[in-house]
Write a structure and sequence with these properties.
Helix 5 (159-176) runs antiparallel to helix 8. The protein is 24% helix and 28% strand. The chain contains 9 helices and 14 strands. By secondary structure, it is of the alpha+beta class.
Length: 419
Amino acid sequence: MGVSIAASAFFPGSPAPAPVAPKNALGERPDSLDVRGVAAKPGSSSGTLRAGKTRAHAAVPKMNGGKSTVADGEHETVPSSVPRTFYNQLPDWSMLLAAITTIFLAAEKQWTLLDWKPKRPDMLSETFGFGRIIHDGFMFRQNFSIRSYEIGADRTASIETLMNHLQETALNHVKTAGLLGDGFGSTPEMSKRDLFWVVSQMQAIVERYPCWGDTVEVDTWVGAHGKNGMRRDWHLRDSMTGHTILKATSKWVMMNKLTRKLARIPDEVRTEIEPYFFERTAIVDEDNRKLPKFPEDQSATAAKYMRTGLTPRWADLDINQHVNNVKYIGWILESAPISILENHELASIVLDYKRECGRDSVLQSHTTVHTDCSSESGETTLHCEHLLSLESGPTIVKARTMWRPKGTKAQETVASSSL
């Protein structure tokens, strides 16, 4: 009996069978049963028959002029309530089913969000900044959003921020092309020979500085430089307007990780990288003027500034165990007078790297300011020469910078992003 009741609770479509009435002495069952399945008394058989007829008449509606009506007097003979049974007291299964369906649909929606896939393969690359190969495999493109911690006091990105984006795209280019070995931008053949790239020269021209929230689009490519070097160029533009932000070019040579001396490019390495060479320059008129040694200019129009006691932090070292080349720019500007930084912005920079700098080095920064340059609009611009050296004497980096007054618009160029 307990099993039958439990089954009826979970399977309402299959009610438990009604109890079978016992047979009488002649082996026959009673002729009539009440609504609970109990045998009616013989004396009540006529009353039961009349009640059945009454219910039958009440169940048949009368047709009167096309309308269904039930005689008023016949309602009095219908029982006032349905007998209370176990089945009638069960919950409303339709409500329970609706609740289960709602929970299932909500869970399915959440799973769909977690298991989201982009409609196009390049959507994931563009959204999360992984970049992609373009222009028949010769160029790499990557987008960057300027973060709040990358802007300075004038609410624009710093030159160090832009230079870090250049370095990031260069490394991601090597990685995406499948040439990244066990090193910082080294190819597999370079890693076998303990070789890595070091920058020897760099030039950048800044037309404008992006602001917080702007998205910059960076294109980069590589080419041959002489018999034993490689060049890498970049072109930064505003991803919304297409206006040029920065153009840069650089020259790279190889260094041995163990001896810390420059090395020639092996034929195996040249075979790896030559298929990606693209003969195109970002800066047409490069500044190839030789940077002077210090001190050399004693004219009245030059002012000299110096900052000493500069030391690398642990965070300034890269995977090759020397100071990252972008850090040198910050040290160069350490000796620039604050009046220049407050009233001018860097328009261009040329860097000539002479030797690497380790974590135990102590450096000094020299800046010579020239004010004998004038722009086409008649505003005075600044030309500075810089020297970063060890306090013991050897030169680390020489540089030249050009500065324009803040608020001066550089000649904007619009470049197509469909190269």
